[in-house]
Design a protein that fits this description.
Layout (H helix, E strand, L loop, with lengths): L10 H11 L1 H14 L2 H14 L2 H9 L3 H7 L8 H10 L15
């Protein structure tokens, strides 16, 4: 390993640490991905955030979902069910909500 990489921390670990320290940042990231319609980025962010809450194994245990199912649902090509999203949100002490779209200025 080169000297410049020694002590380097993987991005996933840094992101998880940030989200664990600032739950509003986690919520803002997920909402921004959804607002932009970026499902792949949403799933990646959700996976990073689950790491902040103990990782997929812990979130699976808390939600009662199978870890393999959760892993498949939260990969970049996953398609989680509403039940999965509700369970993950609950495990992260968050909730899903519908909000009106901003109305265009007349």
């Amino acid at each position: 390993m080169s000297a410049e990489l020694q002590g380097a921390v993987p991005y996933d670990d840094v992101a998880a640490r940030m989200y664990a320290q600032d739950t509003q940042l986690a919520a803002d990231m997920l909402n921004a991905c959804l607002e932009d319609g970026e499902m792949e980025e949403f799933l990646i962010a959700l996976r990073h955030i689950t790491k902040a809450y103990g990782g997929l194994a812990e979130v699976a245990r808390v939600t009662g979902l199978h870890e393999k199912t959760l892993y498949k649902s939260l990969n970049s090509t996953g398609n989680p069910t509403l039940k999965t999203l509700l369970g993950v949100a609950d495990a992260m002490n968050m909730r899903l909500a519908f909000v009106p779209k901003a109305q265009a200025a007349v």
